[in-house]
Design goal:
With about 500 residues, this protein is an alpha/beta fold. The protein folds into 3 domains: about 5-180, Rossmann fold, CATH 3.40.50; about 200-310, 2-Layer Sandwich (Transcription Regulator spoIIAA), CATH 3.30.750; about 435-500, Beta Barrel (OB fold (Dihydrolipoamide Acetyltransferase, E2P)), CATH 2.40.50. Helix content is about 35%, strand content about 20%. The protein contains 15 helices and 22 strands. It has helices at about 15, 25-30, 65-80, 105-125, 140-150, 165-175, 220-225, 230-245, 270-280, 300-305, 325-330, 335-350, 365-380, 405-430, 495-500, and strands at about 20, 40, 55-60, 85, 95-100, 130-135, 155, 180, 190, 200-205, 210, 230, 250-255, 285-290, 315, 355-360, 385-390, 435-445, 450-455, 460-465, 475-480, 485-490. About 40% of the residues are buried. FE3-S4 cluster binds next to helix 3 and helix 7.
């Protein structure tokens, strides 16, 4: 068994193994090199791989954030280009890819559970290719565990190796041993990768990759590499194309979109400039995520305040309301400066919904420090919040800190925080009762085929009755009943909406 902890950075083991075997290396992943990133259009399928998937089926299971959702669309695009078609049925699949997330331990446990479940399937169908990719593949400890305990995995590739899927897949098909290629140094920005998008109403658009913030608890800067922005003209062309195809909403994606453009040319073209151009494209709704309070500049607020297709929703993770904790987290803002930004946004965009992310039980967090988080949440009256118990991530600075807070206390804090968050979410929904909101209809509700579901501009979920022909349309809906996480409503006639 190869112990990859002993390996040198990015060493290619193929000379020994007669197959691709490049293991991840966290130390390498931490390094930030000055080298300029190349922007290429050189993706192509080699002749000997074309059609390799004809008659075969793929299944991709995606965990984690929107970045991963979109990466899965790229992988699906690549697989379709070599002949595969998609399936939702495991037993039908010739290749199953688990596109994984490493953000918290429970995200990882889900994947290990799934790998365990798939053992039987692989036994019954030895020709099945089982692949692990995404952020977990970038972690040494995870890859070691797979090598030791999950030898039925055929293929492991990293977040920087997606464009290599055709070659790696072919190798995995013909090799008896596991094929692995995980680069710990980010690669080029490749513009011409195919994409098989899910749905034809809303679309993801990457504007940048990676993260340089290195919040002390977070694994993302290690799994996604340094910040690399796409060129504005490439992004704008993609958005125009989506508009032309009839998409109604796009979400601009990056781990910290406010850092957009810092790494391009002289760094003067930033997110505010990009949004100001995208604002003029004829697509009804434009969202962006995620926005770190760091780098949230006044000129960006000014552009957002112009409205139009730039919707009134800002996801602005705060993580904690206590300055000492924010400092140890390395967030680079204080409670006061967060609040200042928050009020600036509320003033510039009065009906904006603001949502956030919060971590409880950071190492040695005291009850008083937690109370600061509660009071900040109370003050901001967030429309919604994703709340998490801190999870130590191997290799990050916070994971090396001693921690005197028991899991019981952390759970109790999470519960108290959630009670407050739910109460505020309900309150913000209740304010909409009787109002008319614009809803982009996405499909039938999961629970009831006869009910339609869509989002408001402020990203609230609305359920209402109406014909399926409305899917993909913007409709006016009167809110009849507020719930904690969703709204019920009824369609209003066009004339009535115009009179409002
Ligand atoms: N780039 C985004 C966050 C992406 S990760 C930002 O900084 O705003 C999404 C959320 O997961 C984070 O906002 C944080 O609340 C949570 N998170 C990240 N690492 C975590 C960890 N080690 N334990 C618990 N929650 C974590
Ligand atoms: Fe993680 Fe911080 Fe980067 Fe967000 S900004 S991805 S929390 S390191
Ligand atoms: Fe998870 Fe990676 Fe996204 S760790 S949250 S899938 S960037």
């Amino acid at each position: 068994m190869a112990d990859i902890k002993q390996t040198k950075p990015e060493k290619d083991y193929s000379v020994y193994f007669q197959r691709t075997f490049v293991a991840p290396n966290l130390k390498e992943a931490r390094r930030r090199r000055r080298q300029a990133v190349r922007h290429l259009n050189d993706f192509s399928i080699p002749d000997d791989i074309k059609g390799i998937g004809a008659g075969k089926k793929y299944l991709i299971r995606t965990y984690g954030c929107q970045m991963n959702e979109h990466d899965s669309e790229v992988m699906a695009g690549i697989l379709e280009e070599i002949g595969y078609t998609s399936t939702d049925v495991e037993e039908e699949a010739d290749i199953i890819l688990l596109n994984t997330c490493a953000i918290r331990e429970n995200a990882e446990n889900k994947v290990f559970g799934e790998l365990g479940n798939l053992k039987q399937l692989k036994r019954e169908n030895p020709d099945l290719i089982l692949g692990v990719c995404g952020c977990m593949a970038q972690e040494e400890a995870v890859v070691n565990r797979i090598l030791q305990k999950y030898q039925h995995v055929d293929l492991i590739f990293g977040t920087h190796n997606i464009h290599r899927l055709p070659q790696l897949l072919k190798e995995a098909m013909f090799s008896k041993e596991m094929v692995m290629e995980v680069w710990s140094k980010e690669g080029d920005v490749i513009e011409n990768l195919p994409k098989a998008r899910k749905g034809n109403v809303r679309a993801w658009v990457n504007i940048m990759y990676g993260c340089d913030k290195f919040c002390t608890y977070c694994i993302v800067p290690y799994t996604r590499g340094k910040e690399r922005s796409r060129h504005p003209h490439e992004i704008i062309q993609e958005v125009r194309e989506l508009a032309r195809k009839g998409y109604k909403e796009i979400t601009l994606l990056g781990q910290n979109v406010n850092a957009y453009g810092k790494d391009l040319n002289d760094g003067s073209y930033r997110l505010s400039h990009l949004m100001d151009e995208i604002r003029k494209i004829d697509i009804p709704r434009v969202r962006f995520t995620t926005s770190h309070p760091w780098d949230f500049t006044d000129d960006l607020i000014e552009v957002l305040a112009k409205g139009g297709n730039l919707v009134e929703h800002i996801h602005l993770p705060v993580q904690s309301g206590n300055n000492a904790i924010l400092k140890i987290m390395g967030r680079n803002y204080t409670r006061e400066s967060y609040l200042e930004l928050f009020y600036k946004l509320k003033k510039a965009i009065p009906h904006a919904a603001i949502t956030t992310d919060i971590i409880v039980g950071f190492p040695n967090e005291t009850e008083e420090q937690f109370q600061d988080t509660l009071s900040l949440v109370e003050e901001c009256q967030f429309d919604g919040a994703y709340t998490f118990i801190y999870s130590p991530r191997p290799g990050t600075p916070a994971a090396r800190m001693e921690d005197n807070v028991s899991m019981e206390v952390k759970r109790d804090r999470l519960q108290r925080l959630n009670e407050l968050v739910n109460e505020l979410a309900y309150k913000s929904n209740a304010r909409l009762e009787g109002e008319i909101v614009e809803v982009l209809v996405e499909g039938a509700s999961k629970k009831n085929e006869d009910v339609l579901m869509g989002h408001t501009r402020t990203n609230k979920v609305v359920h209402f009755r109406g014909p399926k022909s409305l899917i993909g349309q913007l409709v006016n809906v009167r809110v009849t009943k507020a719930k904690t996480w969703t709204l019920d409503g009824e369609i209003v006639a066009e004339q009535e909406a115009a009179n409002q």
